[in-house]
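Hi team,

As requested, here is the filled-out complex form for the adenosine monophosphate run. I kept the field names the same as last time so the parser does not choke. Let me know if anything looks off before we queue the next batch.

— J.
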Amino acid sequence: MAEKSYHPGENYRYPLIIKKLLATPLRDSPDREIVYSDRHRYTYKDFEKRIAMLANGLTTLGLRPGETVAVFDYDSHRYLECFFAVPMMGAVLQTVNWRLSADQIRYALNHAEAKMVIIHADFLPILETIIDHLETVKTYVVTAENNPPDTKLNFAAEYEELLQSAASHYPFPDLDENTKATTFYTTGTTGNPKGVYFSHRQLVLHTFSVALASGAYDTLARFRSNDVYMPLTPMFHVHAWGFPYVATLLGAKQVYPGPYEPQKLLQLIQREKVTYSHCVPTILQMLLNCPTVNTVDLSHWKVTIGGARLPKGLAKAARKLGVTIHAGYGMSETCPVMCAATPKERMLDWPEERLLDVIIKTGKSIPLAEIEVVDAKDNLLPHDGQSTGEVVMRSPWLTAGYFKEPEKSKELWRNGWLHSGDVGYIDAEGYLQITDRIKDVIKSGGEWVSSLDLENVMSQHEAVLESAAIGVPDEKWGERPLMIVTLKPDFQGKVSPEELKAFMKKFADEGKLPKYGVPDRYVFMDHIPKTSVGKLDKKVLRTSVQ
Ligand code: AMP
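And here is what came back:
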């Protein structure tokens, strides 16, 4: 019998687009809640309607497919609505880091050719300073959470009013999966911010891989449908590391906290029974330092730390409070997640100290992510736990380049690998350990000293709250490491530089640090400067401490 053959046009060419992430949660968890701080809560069913209302509202205001919408907001249910509605319409979501300087924000909006701005009223003072220099924006929408905003700016609509007057159905199209969905700007040490961008296909594949890596394997800190999710990474920072898409796909309860105030965040964790979050180390540090932390039961809270090395001292302090913690790795250019420092199944019953050494590593690659370490000529280095070089990556979700920056894109992508600018090694178990940013490497007497290793050791001193190691010029050695330290409140004025040096030296004597790596100088600071996404700002430290 002849085989039935199909016309090429008959089968459905399934596009990997953001719209497709919604069917499962809407079927399985329509009544699960999405919560905005202590202001608002609704269900996935309401969320679906509001996505359609937002798309209708934006269409009425003239937004067309391919155009870019820049959003300034705290972590909120409205931001989540924009994460879906804007790309699902075929437009591009630009998430704006409102902690950058007004000049950098102006540059990013002009460079991305944003046509529309959606802005929380709290950020109007920024907009007021740049609005006359915005070259492409035609329409402004304001979110007035409290009262009508006190501004002379002319808005086409208020967010809630726009939704209230819009229909709750929208024919979201089947887009080409390679349609650009999101963009945002990342700041380097010099020059203008650079735009990275991601397609629907990339975001969908990233979502699936992160969901698989976080939920499917028998390991620590699993993130699943019955978890309660609260981001502690701003939604402007690499889509809150992509987890809002994962949480939505899983149909998990979601809690968006608004501005990050430590006491309020702890209250939300308690009240909403939050079980899964992710953040940079400084945010966790801020919560653990909060005077009320001991009144909150954190024993059901799982936290993925990324954006910077998870110091062992911080991991220990968190575990002491019952928090399940591990590190992860990625960067703006990589969507971002590439690695998670989750233990393999057979490591789960390892003793505490040994397990701790696994979960503070940079991590092993998640499905479909490839990570290698290369020498200066891009030769792959062995996974022997020693050979150190630049970290290079491949996966389906890496940015194709920097928007309208061919030269910088060529530097990023060489020989088919995305070059991270990070230095590290991979061990025989396949775990990556980042030792530095190339730009932060300290070279003493021709030898590399890892600033992250130094900080990791320093974090284990009982008096140390935060530490940052930088290289300072030295006549004899070229450069020497210098350690900057903030002390815990109880230890202020009670610890000397000599004691800190003796502590570091002990690790060197035990072979855990190279002897030449022990810093000679220790500088106390009340507060270590941070970047716009809460990382130690070594650029500022290098110029302010010598
Ligand atoms: P960003 O583009 O702001 O997300 O920053 C990405 C950079 O953060 C990476 O290139 C690393 O230098 C750093 N980073 C992220 N995760 C880790 C980690 N687990 N350990 C050390 N550095 C990290």
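Two things worth flagging: The pocket of adenosine monophosphate is lined by residues 186, 238, 306-309, 327, 329, 331-332, 336, 362, 420, 422, 434, 437, 533 (CB under 6 Å). The CA atoms of residues 469 and 483 lie 5 Å apart.

Thanks,
J.
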